[in-house]
Design goal:
The chain is globular, with a radius of gyration of 17 Å. The chain contains 7 helices and 6 strands, in the order H-H-E-H-E-H-E-H-H-E-E-E-H. It has helices at residues 18-25, 30-41, 55-63, 79-92, 108-111, 113-129, 172-182, and strands at residues 45-48, 68-72, 95-99, 134-136, 153-156, 161-164. The protein has a 6-stranded mixed sheet with strand order 3-2-1-4-6-5. Helix 2 (30-41) packs across helix 3 (55-63).
Length: 229
């Protein structure tokens, strides 16, 4: 089964003010970055959360309790991940939106990892982001070599919107410290050796992102940088 990429036409160009704003926020705290994002984009801002832990959500709702949080409900998540999403919704009164794939979306075991991620993660997110001006992610440079060059604020050229990565410079120790200091919700799979948690059929315990997709790849396509990004 082949899955055609979503085509929303030519994305808008990077706004002229963005490089200066990005430079000014490069070394800002996560709290400062999120305050800027909320003030700048308002209701046109969305936060993407994988439900691995609630660090990004906890930070985001402190900036705006009503901020929209999206969860890519692929249809293949661990029960623990779905439970984590519900716990976060209940704790924060979260404005949680579950993005689901089409009923006939590609399946990992039949169509391969790339087609499955494209249909169940990338396409639903891109449909949703088409109506937004910016999105916030929990991407961190320490997670993998493929993320080492990420900036705090950058232009998502493939989608034509601003991408905000408020914890991009955080180490694993920084994350653990924030979790402990703020009693943040954590996916129970973290205590079972899952350092990076994706869908159940293609995630194994392992350090970093090496437990994902049987070691075939490091990215699902959500954070790939397009030319000009």
């Amino acid at each position: 089964m082949s899955v055609a990429p979503v085509d929303f036409g030519a994305p808008p160009r990077r706004p002229a003010w963005l490089p200066a704003a990005a430079a000014g926020l490069a070394d800002a705290s996560a709290t400062e970055v999120l305050a800027w994002a909320v003030a700048t984009f308002g209701a046109d801002l969305t936060v993407a959360c994988s439900m691995q832990d609630g660090v990004l959500v906890d930070l985001a709702v402190r900036a705006d309790p009503a901020v929209e949080v999206v969860f890519l409900d692929t249809g293949f998540h661990f029960g623990e991940t779905l439970g984590t999403a519900e716990r976060m919704r209940a704790r924060y009164g979260l404005n949680l939106v579950r993005l689901r794939p089409d009923p006939d979306a590609a399946v990992y075991g039949v169509d391969g990892t790339e087609a499955c991620c494209e249909a169940r993660k990338v396409a639903p997110l891109e449909r949703h982001l088409a109506g937004r001006a910016a999105w916030v992610t929990g991407l961190r440079r320490a997670e993998s070599p493929s993320r080492a060059g990420a900036a705090t604020v950058e232009w998502d050229a493939a989608r034509g919107l601003v991408k905000v990565n408020p914890i991009v410079a955080w180490s694993d120790d920084d994350v653990a410290r924030y979790i402990a200091d703020h009693d943040v919700i954590v996916n129970p799979l973290r205590d079972k050796g899952f350092a990076s948690i994706g869908c159940e059929p293609c995630t194994l315990p392992g350090a970093g992102r090496s437990g994902r997709w049987g070691g075939e790849r490091l990215e699902c396509g959500l954070h790939l940088v397009a030319p000009g990004g």
